[in-house]
Amino acid sequence: MSKSKPKQASSEQETPLGLYLHVPFCSTSCDFCGFYQIQSDRKGILSYIDGVKRELELVDAGNRKLDTMFWGGGTPGLLPAADMLKVGAAITDELGMPSQEWTVEMAPSSVKRDKLEALKEAGVTRISMGIQSLNERLLDALGRQHSLKQIHKAYDLIREVGFHSVNVDLIFAIPTQTEEEWRADVRGALALEPDHLSTYCLTFEEDTALFIKLQQGKVSIDPDREARFYTAMWEEAQRGGFEQYEISNYARPGHACLHNVNTWKMAQWIGVGPSASSQWAGTRHTNTPDLKDWLAGLERGERGLVDRVVLNDGLLLEDSLIFGLRMNEGVDLAQLGQRFGRDLTQIALFDQLVEEGQAERVGPSLRLTPKGRMVADAVGEALLGSFG
Ligand code: SF4
Fold first, then answer.
1. To test the ligand 1 pocket, which listed residue (37, 40, 111, 142) has its Cβ within 8 A of the most ligand atoms?
2. Ligand 1: which residues within 6 Å by Cβ?
3. Distances (CA, A) of 312 to 270, 283, 305, 367
4. Ligand 1 centroid to 75 CA: how many Å?
5. Per the domain annotation, does 24 fall within a domain?
6. Measured from the CA of 26, which atom of ligand 1 is nearest?
7. Pocket of ligand 1, candidates 21, 32, 33: which has the most ligand atoms within 8 Å of its Cβ, to mutate?
8. 30 C-alpha to ligand 1 centroid (Å)
9. Distance from the first to the final alpha carbon of the chain
10. Whose C-alpha lies nearest to ligand 1, atom 3?
């Protein structure tokens, strides 16, 4: 495929630009994981680095430079320090140093001083560490990848090397986990004094070990229990002085994840690596989720894009509302109306949400109330198809 000029819907222009890099390597597979990931070996890593360079050559960003960058996976931290520097340079040579934020996900077991120092030298500003739980029994239930000792050692090292922002991820509603254990996990994570906390309700992704247990009736889904865990989370975070800024995300002032915020606001992002998704050049698409197929496509000069959807203002407006309402600040209807050329002041569904106590109007903004946040998925479903 030859380079083609990016086409943009009028509402896409001048929105921030992010890059998401998917690093597909993991040392073992976690029971709950639905991401594309494979075991790492030297040959695979070398071909992956070569693929990243080739893919970047096929992305025509014109004169655009990156605002944010996020390396996720997989386990980006499994790459040796020298390889991280090579990949980082390949991206920044092509698209410039991200002007606002550069996040790299690390697993506690992959955190090493030389890697952190390489990332710092490359310009990384934010480390996100998936600790999952601070309870040994629950780490086992998740298919343990690290010990408590490794979590503390890795966290101290990250702080010692010194990054602007440090995030820790927790998982909740793990089978057999009690509400008190969840509260203890949140308190324990906050006691580390991170800048940001992300929390994920355990989901049962198809083809995972946990999904098979669900089908066998060995574990079950309990929405009431999940709701209690959400409430417990909000209470504990508030007590710890952390501000919730999105359904699952909390931060100290000035430490919200800008890459994710730009994504929720339907800006633009380029996905690089197998299974990475993009919203770029007029379409939303995903790279083929297989290292070999991705490389074979690049050999032919093609990015292997699947699930391609042509963007239009209706779709972007709808998703701006669905994802924007998951943020505590809500959506600025005047701004969105201007961006998409629509009058959003008299929408019956918004009035209904306000009447039912699920949303409130604050100046030109509409935002969910705590009651609305508990049913944010249902609010999103109600919005689906309303503006397309
Ligand atoms: S480390 Fe992360 S990406 Fe890898 S298997 Fe576990 S959850 Fe999935």
1. 37
2. 26, 29-30, 33, 35, 37, 73-75, 107, 145
3. 17, 9, 19, 24
4. 7
5. yes
6. 4
7. 33
8. 5
9. 30
10. 74
Contact 209, 28 (CB under 8 A): no
Residue 146: strand, helix, or coil: coil
Residue nearest atom 2 in ligand 1 by C-alpha distance: 74
Are 259 and 339 contained in the same domain?
no
**Closest of 380, 378, 360 to residue 370, by C-alpha:** 360
Spatial distance between the Cα atoms of 182 and 207, rounded to a whole number of angstroms: 26
Please check the confidence at residue 173 and state whether its pLDDT lies above 80. yes
Asked whether the predicted pLDDT for residue 4 surpasses 50, the reply is no
Which range marks the domain in which residue 154 is found? Answer: 10-166+254-263
Show Cβ contacts of residue 248 under 8 Å, excluding neighbours closer than 6 positions.
Answer: 198, 199, 200, 201
Atom nearest to 32 CA in ligand 1: 7
Dist. CA 163–CA 92, nearest whole Å:
19
If you average pLDDT over each of 21-30, 36-45, 134-143, 165-174, which comes out highest? Answer: 165-174
Residues 348 and 258 placed together within one structural domain of the fold: no
Question: Residue 220 has what pLDDT?
Answer: 75
Residues 259 and 371 in one domain: no
pLDDT tens for 203-212 read 877 777 777 7
**Is residue 39 domain-resident?**
yes
320 and 258 in a single domain? The answer is no
> Could you give the CA distance from residue 86 to residue 26 in angstroms, rounded to a whole number?
19
| Shared-domain flag, residues 147 and 44 | yes
Ligand 1 pocket test, candidate residues 22, 27, 30, 207, most atoms within 8 A of CB: 30
What mean pLDDT do residues 260-276 have? 97
**If you measure from the C-alpha of residue 12 to the centroid of ligand 1, how many angstroms do you get, rounded to a whole number?**
32
Distances from the Cα of 251 to the Cα of 14, 330, 372, 375, angstroms: 27, 16, 21, 22
Based on the structure, what is the number of domains in the chain?
2
* Digit-coded pLDDT (tens) for 117-126: 999 999 999 9
Q: CATH code at 69? A: 3.20.20.70
Which of 145, 151, 169, 208 gets mutated to test ligand 1 (max ligand atoms within 8 A of its CB)? 145
Residue 89 lies inside a defined structural domain of this protein? yes
- In sequence order, what are the residues at sequence separation of 6 or more whose Cβ sits closer than 8 angstroms to the Cβ of residue 195? 164, 165, 166, 167, 251, 252, 255
Q: Ligand 1 centroid to 137 CA: how many Å?
A: 18
